[in-house]
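Human:
Class, as today's exercise, you are to examine the entry below, and be ready to discuss the fold:
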Amino acid sequence: MKFIIKHEIRGRIRIHAAQSRMSAVQADTLAYYVGKLEGVTSVKVQERVQDAVICYTGDRETLILALRQFAYENVEVPEQVLASSSRALNSEYWEKLVTAVVLRAGSKMFLPYSIRSVIAAVKSVKYLWHGICTLAHGKLEVPVLDGTAIGVSVFRGDMETASSVMFLLGIGEILEEWTHKKSVADLARSMSLHVEKVWLQRDGQEILVPSEQIQPGDKVVVRMGNMVPFDGVVVTGDGMVNQASMTGESIPVHKSEGSTVYAGTVLEEGELTVLVREVTGSGKFDKIVSMIEESEKLKSGTENHALELADRLVPWCLAGTVVTYALTRNVTRAISILMVDFSCALKLSMPLAVLSAMRECGSYHITVKGGKYLEALSKADTIVFDKTGTLTHASPKVVKVVPFSGCDEEEVLKLAACLEEHFPHSMANAVVRAAKERGITHEEMHTEVEYIVAHGIASRVRGERVVIGSHHFVFEDEKCVIPAAEQQKFDDLEPEYSHLYLAACGQLVGVICIADPLRPEARHVLRQLRAIGVTNTVMMTGDSDRTAAAIARQVGVDQYFSEVLPEDKAEYVQKAKAEGHTVVMIGDGINDSPALSAADVGIAINSGAAIAREIADITIKADSLEELVQLKSIANAMQRRVASNYRFVLSFNSALIILGALGILQPATSAMLHNLSTIGISLKSMTNLLPEKTQSQLQQENTKA
């Protein structure tokens, strides 16, 4: 396809597609294709002018070559991407806005005053009725102010003022609805486009495949701690499913053969085989939109306070109107006060500030489930870190396999990978990855896999019990023994590595040594967190005290706790909260779930267990712990913006009321300035919170990672 370069600077290029018209689907296709190119940090396609603005960090010539090779018919865009696009929404509201302006201008140019008066009288009925209904419910809110202002103008025969006020109110309603829906759609899209791999059951075997390959009628296997990937029906199995994200049910629901399960829910116990009903992304997208719009989690304490104040100020506006008329006997001045209310600006700008902050987090692969969590994060003074996969590198590596009991290295690694691949954890991923690198195929040799939280995994192979996990689990809980002749080999295991112990029939058959290096940015991140409000950093791990102490010294945490169980982490969090601290917990495993739930803000690593992501209030991609600094900075900036919006709305609208009461501003002018200020502060609330320079740097870091 042919493109024309319209403008170019280093790292940014604006191109024009050589075609007469671009549809919304074509724009989404182009955006999807370019966004997937290596080195591209952002892309924005404007279908009305057939332009695309591309920001990139890679090689320019590579980008140009990829654009030359582009063709709409050669790009397969996931249905979920098209279903969640906001282009149709933007087109709909743009047409509404243009239509309203054209009709207003046309009526003033071509219709006589008498006909315009009749139209105004008919339109006023809607506003009068809304005001009456609001009063009938015992409420003094904005519809009462609007209805009173329009009603008084109509009663006085000033149809031009009434018409102008209704036009401005209509424009304001369109823009308010547009901006709110777009913010919700942008946020929902960032939350719904995560694609995972799933276990497909075919011909009696389980195959790990990308979720986009699944078709209706396929059977997928879901195990404890994992997310249900699609809407479907249980065909075999029994389990407890956490449906809180979709239905609001706080207690896990029992599912068995014939039960319906929903995409995005999490299996807490058991194992299910699900017959897939729907694979398109629209169902899940719609559910997420509904969750965002309806959940009380969306509202922060500051936001709720501002909204309550807005409603409380309505009676004072009415009282000011009455007092102004009593003192001046001037209806125009009184109506000018009615044209101004605090509610519109506060009720629109505050949620938009929250939604925009959540959307900005999403642009950096951070998913926030509600504004209250960003508010809590802005106040957080204590952060508790899990060690493995959080403070240590997200990709630990198998450095050595030590066989016992006559087994060889390949046999040990093959069996270990077969068990570990069913449960997403950094250590498990390391074992699976090591087997793949060595070319070891580990077909299903076992029966049902059982995960013992914070300990390990158990199964049966050829009728014999096989376990893999911690020293405590294998040797103390399972009572496995070390072959007497190999005790010295066991004692010589390097202490600097983390160890996974594999046993069969009660006897040790292998030890997998895993290097779990500290993230290089961890120490720097902790210093940055202290600079922006965190006063206490804590590390908690199930490792030995020797290992924990070494990591604690390297990373520079204020406190550390070793050999802890899941309940120990949760107990510490609850104790810190009772002492008056605002606590953040960050982890990635099933064993972190109790602490994630207990914390004021639970943060889960996106590559970790699904149950951890489900329980957590925030999930991060965690290519780098720098995302925590970014997240905390956005939370702090959001609180500053909410406070700034609050002060501006109160001061500006108060000034309009005073100017109207003094007769300096006419009612139509007051309404116009009020609506313009509402739209202006709303648009400002939708802008990014981080400085542009910081954003660019962070995007480049994410691209490199």
